[in-house]
Amino acid sequence: MLRIDLVRVLRTLVALSLVSRVYAASTFPEYPLNQASDYAVSTQTAGLTIGVKAVENLKDQETYFHTELTPKGFVPVFVVIQNGSSGDSFLFDKTKVTYGPADSSASTPKMGSKAGESLAVAAVPFVGLFAALKIISGVSQVQQNLLKKEMQSTTLSPGTSTHGFLYVPVLKNAPREKTHLRVPITRIGADEAFVLDLVF
Amino acid sequence: MIKTCYSFLAVLLFCALLFSLAFVTTGAQTVSPSGTKLPLRAALVVTPEFCETKFKKGSWATIKETFEVGKIACAELEPALGRIFSSLTRVTEPPSSGDAQVVLTPRFVDVGATTTIGAFSNRELDVFLEWTVKDVAGKTVWIETVQGSSKHHMGNMFTHSKNLKLIVTDSVKDAAEQSASKMSSSPELRKLTQ
């Protein structure tokens, strides 16, 4: 009889420990990861494929971030970059990523013209999260999760990939305009730089 | 009844064994592929500004904290990286010339800390450290961001500062170890040795 009770206690303890682990793991679920080419907005250059998905649905933002980011002035954009080449490595430097209105992909303007001025303003260097964290005051776990999910600078060796979120500033309480994301990439060795352009 | 309970326990134990094996496999993937030192002369750039890096977090509504990550990093990076390079020299500014084959420059990106209400509840600190490695020609050959993490008690009003120092130290130490592991297993850095 005593043995049965002991087994029951053990079983309960093991079950409880599993429940707490499951709960902890599901606190901030990971955003589903697909192949870069599977995203509706994607492009490919030099064996490198990039795919993006703006997570605009407030319910999804609540699920993955436990907060609604758009009303606070940010849209989280999930980015996946895959190096499909067999021998080349590439550098992704997050600090060189810029964003702006979709029409900023127009031909190179003269810097003196008004269009040029607006484009110069439009190509904003990416410092989204620092500003976002200041605005999104609240639970520290939410802030930490934003930071953990953010895309970071990295080297893409042959056959590897990287992914994460970029937090793009948007107008509050207004329909989002199309955004032009420019992701500069450098091929190691050749010292060749090119830009992956995406409009979403 | 007893038989059923034992078989249930056996299944659970088997699952636990599978889980632990999976974790061991995952951990083993971060180890250097060859386990040998990189035969490169490296210069580690730790500027006075880097050593003074600190992040202030919190607001009037929560606890305000300062995470002095730079001071710890300047003590921990050299021994950690010294284990993976055949030669490592610490410098306080990027060398314009010299015999270094690679120049390693660290930069703190940010830190993220959770807070807890209970003094004995565990909190977590993540430190994000970005590395830029340049070759002798000054070209960037490798960039990586590592995440160092640790958990410690929040502490009460008497023990909070001691616990804060502990969690910062352990997170930065972890970031240093992660840095060494990533550099050691980098195909791009190994290529430079050929």
Task: Supply the number of helical segments of chain A.
Answer: 5
Oligomerization state: heterodimer
CATH topology of chain A: Immunoglobulin-like
Poorly predicted sequence stretches spanning 5 or more consecutive residues of chain A: 12-26, 106-124
Compute the gyration radius of chain B: what is it? 21 Å
Helix content of chain A: 25-40%
Spatial order of strands in the largest sheet of chain B: 4-1-5-6-7
CATH architecture term of chain A:
Sandwich
Question: Biggest interface pair, residues each?
Answer: A-B, 30 and 31 residues
- Taking all Cα atoms into account, the compactness measure Rg of chain A is 22 Å
Number of helices of chain B: 5
- Largest sheet features of chain B: 5 strands, mixed
- Decide which structural class fits the backbone of chain B: alpha/beta
Q: How does this structure look, described?
A:
With 200 residues, chain A is an alpha+beta fold. Chain A is 30% helix and 30% strand. Chain A has helices at 2-25, 58-65, 114-122, 128-135, 140-149, and strands at 41-45, 48-54, 74-83, 90-92, 98-101, 124-125, 154-156, 161-169, 179-187, 192-199. In chain A, strands 4, 5, 6, 7, 9 and 10 form a 6-stranded antiparallel β-sheet that branches. In chain A, strands 1-2-3-8 form a 4-stranded antiparallel β-sheet. In chain A, β9 and β10 form a beta hairpin. Chain A is globular. The model of chain A is unreliable at 12-26 and 106-124 (pLDDT under 50). With 194 residues, chain B is of the alpha/beta class. Chain B is built from 5 helices and 7 strands, in the order αβαββαββββαα. At the A-B interface, α1 and α5 of A face α1, β5, β6 and β7 of B.
Descriptive key words:
heterodimer, A: 200 residues, alpha+beta, Immunoglobulin-like, six-stranded antiparallel β-sheet, B: 194 residues, alpha/beta, five-stranded mixed β-sheet, two-stranded antiparallel ribbon, 31% strand
